[in-house]
Amino acid sequence: MRDWKAIRARYEPVIGLEVHAQLKTATKIFCACPNRFGDEPNTHVCPVCLGLPGSLPVLSRQAVSLAMRAALATHCTIQTTSIFARKNYFYPDLPKGYQISQYERPLATEGYVEIPANEGFRRIRVQRIHIEEDAGKLLHEGFAWSNDKSGIDFNRTGVPLIEIVTAPDIRTSEEAHEYLAALRATLVYAEVSDGNMEEGSLRCDANVSVRRSGEAALGTRTEIKNLNSIRNVARAIEHEISRQVALIESGGDVVQETRLWNADRGETVSMRSKEEAHDYRYFPEPDLPPLLVDPEWIESARRSLPELPSDRRRRFIEHYGIPAYDAGVLTLSREVADYFEEAARASGNPKAASNWVMTDVLRKLKEDTRPLSACPVSPGRLTEMICLIDDGVISGKIAKDVFEKMWSTGAPAGMIVECEELTQVTDASAIEAVIAEIVGAHADQVAVYRNGKKAALGWFVGQVMRKTQGKANPRLVNELLRKALDG
Amino acid sequence: MFGADRVHAHEQPAGLFASQEETRYSNRMPRVTEETVEHVARLARLSLSEEERRVFTRQLEEILDYAESIQNLDTTGIDPMSHAGLPGVLRDDTPHDGLDQESVLAVAPDASEGLFRVPRIIQ
Amino acid sequence: MTDLWRLNAREISEKVRKREVSAVEVMRAHLSRIEKLEPRIDAFLHVNEHALSRARSIDSAVSRGSVDLPLAGVPAAIKDVLHVANMPTTCASKILRNYVPPFTATCVARLERAGAIILGKTNMDEFAMGSSTENSGYKPTRNPWSAAHVPGGSSGGSAAAVAAQMAPIALGTDTGGSIRQPAAFCGVVGIKPTYGRVSRYGLVAFASSLDQAGPFARTVQDAAVVLAAISGRDDHDATSVERRFPDAHAETDGDARGLRVGVPWEFLKRGVDAGVMTSFREALDQLQACGALLRDVSLPHLAHAVATYYIVATAEASSNLARYDGVRYGRRAEGATDLDQMYGETRDRGFGAEVKRRIILGTFVLSSGYYDAYYLRAQKVRALIRRDFEAAFESCDVIATPTTPSPAFKIGEKTDDPLKMYLEDVFTVPANLAGLPGLSIPCGLSAGLPVGLQLMSRWFDESMLLRAGHAFERLTEHHLRRPPL
């Protein structure tokens, strides 16, 4: 390929994302079966979610409340009347032969999610949020009979979902990544969803097209499914953009179709003409009266919202004076943000708190693959350590060791410093004694220094620190050395 | 994407329905052909016999001919009536036990190891 | 007392509660009546083998002092589209052969709570689609008045059972006339309640925005007691509502003085059988004689009701019947090796011709390119029809029509002409489209076959229907006529 980058740069990708999020309710959307993941197959089922003859759906109030929270958190307008519709198609994981969803009149419309951009933020518009029910799970592998049969588990059938559809505002795979991270953080903050893509509580389909830069008309889009992590969404989009550009460059046409992402092979694969006959015959669901939402209900949903990541981020920047990037990382998860804020407030040193959380706490958690809830160093303990540094009791360098020990033993910093005698030497006479000894033993280095090579001071500092096992106060060492050498 | 779906929903597979354009503007719906019935039967997952297809084509045509009268009514400004009832009551989020696995699978045409089974779906 | 099957529901309940007769005796009388007549009528698909033991428990409840049972010991026949736990529900379809539901329909449970005893499940048109009960996947039911004639449908088994005195009361369902039309054909009382009055939970759906369960009985008062028992909001049906239903007995004690009866004469000009029209006019005269005031009312969009109905009902049905796919329950065609073959053959073999015809029609009117012209337009015409009724009820309290344009037709007469069969529903479908309550009450005979008078009233104003119906019964003797069995 001759200068692929240049060719690629002539095209502008246009990307829209459709995200399905399972709502954190206790029950399924239209029946009282528990909304629970990972149990024996077909144990959370009833006449309603199995689609037995004579059963009827009854909508869960809590599912609507959570969907409204998601809508408010993404700045959408909630429609006071929305209507459920049947989406008709046959598939063994769909018990009634239709999925109850919303079509022409969704719950919420016209919102946005903010993602970080060059300077500040950029808005990705949300076109609509609607409520629908999840389907069951098909099992194609793992049984003696898997060669000629597929199994079905209906535990997931009827789990409440919201679908969040963006406008085609996304231009790069990085932006798609940012959008998903921000949306997930928002949904998790608002306690709407677990946001776990690997377990399927958050699922993403991507609509991707490319057009020559400067063109107004959209290119033919493909829909990519089976994206089970934020990283895979970005990879799949990147691959699909390249595939489409290469196709057009070689004189071909993009076909409107659904493609499956194969993470192992790192490519998207056409689902062939599987959906040739798709005609969902949407019509209003007669078993469910129109959903009416009054202003009080919307208000109470609004009041139940916590501070959202984008607001909190802005506040961290302004109030604690930390860099935008740091604020972004710290607010991706509500727990991390809470942790940081506690340490920042208690220590009175937000910058140090931010650095310690970003570089040490998050790194150790990742190494140990543990959640923040199982972190051995509490915000209070971290605060204590930051104060020891600020009070000059330990140096920053010693503090790194202290932190490691706090992590492995769970002991407080003060105790570790005391037991291991790590307290900084700030006694000038003690340091002067060490300096005198070193200066006396290295006349040659003293000569070098005095002949104008002031950089040799570093060599003396290193010697002093080695002698004091790093405990000497560096500022004091520098000061006393100069005094001794400069005479 | 929904808006696009709706537009798509009004496109026709070429050649399947005769004189589609004409009907838009003349208020006279097209002849029902056996292909129409076959297409619809496929959507409804009914494997019709040739005889059924032939008879249903004629009968569907007759019925739609009769239903033609509603095409000429003035429905300007009328909201469609999709529900006969009143706004409904919602359900509390309190879980209850449903049916037990054994009884659920007992009425299944084919089940094994806690699962319903169907002929293998080619992925 | 061997003639206990002659008693009406209120009489049975009173005697059982006073312990003048036992529920067991009443049940035995009806079971032997069924044994005797069923070979000629074929009203039942299943007879409850536990009916006698249930009668015994009613007797012991009464002897322990339970008197708050308005239907104590009253045998009730249930259309086979309503679930009774541990009894098969087939909807007269082969696709549900031997299907036993795990729960009881709310309206049936309420009937049982009032003391009624389920006699069995009655025959019907498959999935309630039909006007003659000839579309049963198992057998046709015969009209007790004439074995050569249909009992009407789709609740033909329930209507025939009550007419033949095999049961004093029965439940049916009415989507486009399926209670009122067979009630008229068999000479009994039938009520389609206001949409939402009776829970649909446990009613196997045909067309969800039109379906309502309701009673059959031989008197308006019996029908009123059953309606009172089965009405009310149900947490399992989001479209059900709680509306005050005044005491059934008190409501039926009134007369027809001052009752404004609207008649849509323009709508009755053509296509009504002469004998039916004679009975209808006589009925109006009699209503007038007991104090009612007749009014001409205009319902201009009723001419489009059948077309509208068959679009809306089949669209919903095509979706409601998608669940019969041979995956979770019911019959699956043998030997299918792939999914589409399994679906196609299961559904082709499991459904009868009328059901398939309606699925095809309903799928068609929802399909891409036709939705706006048919389904959406029909929904708008439906709104116009409702508006017609709202306007008409400004000037009258009830609207009267014949229930059907002609009396019962012969078995086999209309099976080859679905459209002709659909036109049988011309007077009954408007109430379903608008969601209104409707009553059919016997008002005479035409060539030896019963004729029904239909009354419709405002939404949730069943009291008005019952009052008018009862006043009519007090003045006439049509409801006392019995078929020559």
Keywords:
heterotrimer; A: 487 residues; alpha+beta; Arc Repressor Mutant, subunit A; 9-stranded mixed β-sheet; 3-stranded antiparallel β-sheet; 16 strands; 40% helix; B: 123 residues; mainly alpha; Histone, subunit A; two-stranded antiparallel sheet; flat
Main beta sheet strand tally, sense and closure of chain C: 11 strands, mixed
Principal-axis shape of chain C: globular
Q: What Rg of chain C do the Cα atoms give?
A: 21 Å
Structural class of chain C: alpha/beta
The CATH class label of chain C is: Alpha Beta
**Overall strand count of chain A:** 16
From the spread of the alpha carbons, the general shape of chain A counts as: elongated
Put the structure in a nutshell.
The complex is a heterotrimer of chains A (487), B (123) and C (485). Helix content of chain A is 40%, strand content 19%.
Structure description:
The complex is a heterotrimer of chains A (487), B (123) and C (485). Chain A contains 16 helices and 16 strands. Chain A is an alpha+beta fold. The mean pLDDT of chain A is 87. Chain B is mainly alpha-helical and 123 residues long. Chain B has a domain at 1-72: Glu-tRNAGln amidotransferase C subunit, N-terminal domain (Histone, subunit A). Chain B is built from five helices and two strands, in the order H-H-H-H-H-E-E. Chain B has helices at 2-9, 20-26, 34-43, 50-67, 101-106, and strands spanning 111-112, 115-119. A two-stranded antiparallel sheet of chain B has the order 1-2. In chain B, a hairpin with a 2-residue loop joins strand 1 (111-112) and strand 2. The longest helix of chain B has 18 residues, at 50-67. Chain B is flat and about 55 Å long. Chain C has one domain (4-262, 395-480): Amidase signature (AS) domain (Amidase signature (AS) enzymes). In chain C, 38% of the residues lie in helices and 13% in strands. Chain C has 16 helices and eleven strands. An eleven-stranded mixed β-sheet of chain C has the order 1-3-2-4-6-5-10-11-9-7-8, with helices on both faces. Chain C is globular and about 65 Å long. Chains B and C meet through helix 3, helix 4 and strand 2 of B and helix 10, helix 11, helix 12, helix 13 and helix 14 of C.
